Amino acid sequence: MAKASEVKTGNVLRFNGELVSVEEYIHRTPGNLRAFYQARMRNVKTGKIVEYRFRTDEEVTISRVETNDYQYLYEDGDYLVVMDNETFEQHNIPKFLFGDSIKFLKESMTLTVAFESDEPIVAHLPNSVELEVTYSEPAVKGDTATNALKLAIVETGAEVRVPLFVNQGDRIRIDTRYGEYMERVR
Q: What SS3 string covers 82-140?
């Protein structure tokens, strides 16, 4: 157990039986009242925001979270099998931890996974990935007056809106957080 004064932004706490990540942690001393800590925390599993005021002497449980990079090997039902590149240990990571970005996942890709006492709690792909366009609609001449977008399918099967100049066979960079086209890769 730790005191509320020892908590920092970025810590993962066990709060009301749930794991929460501290996004904002501010010390406040309003006028002639007692000081407190105003915390804005995000539930690790659901993503829901929780706000709470801690007394300065209140005890909290800071969880020990280990974050590491792993190589994606293959899909196994509702899990992805990943391997630690240093120890060659394999872990099963639930697919739902990746959210919508899982549609950009390729074999041998490096993923970031956070564990709390051997249980995976957070997992995500790199912020951007380079993928090849396997299908795109041909651009119609004269459609370039505005920054129009067309539909393209990348090698993982995901659909992305791209500018008209992107053709089949081009490599593009995609932002995995939002699923948006970033640039064409030469």
A: EEECCCCCEEEEEHHHHHHHHHHCCCCCEEEEEEECCEEEEEECCCEEEEEEEEECCCC
What number of residues does the chain have?
186
Sign of CA dihedral 88, 93, 98, 104: positive
Report helix, strand and coil shares of the chain as percent, to nearest 5: 10, 55, 35
Which residues does residue 60 pair with via DSSP β-bridges, in sequence order?
Answer: 2
Where exactly are the structural domains of the chain? Answer: 2-63, 65-124, 129-185
Q: Give SS3 for 10.
A: coil
CATH topology of domain 129-185: OB fold (Dihydrolipoamide Acetyltransferase, E2P) (2.40.50)
3-class DSSP state for residue 59? Answer: strand
**If you search the block for the tokens 């209140």, which residue do you land on?**
58
Q: pTM of the predicted model, to two decimals? A: 0.73
End-to-end C-alpha distance for the chain, whole angstroms: 53
Segment 163-178, tens digit of pLDDT = 888 899 999 999 998 9
Q: CA 142 → CA 87, 145, 147, distances in Å?
A: 56, 7, 12
The two structure tokens encoding residue 143:
């459609």
Q: Which fold has domain 2-63?
A: SH3 type barrels. (2.30.30)
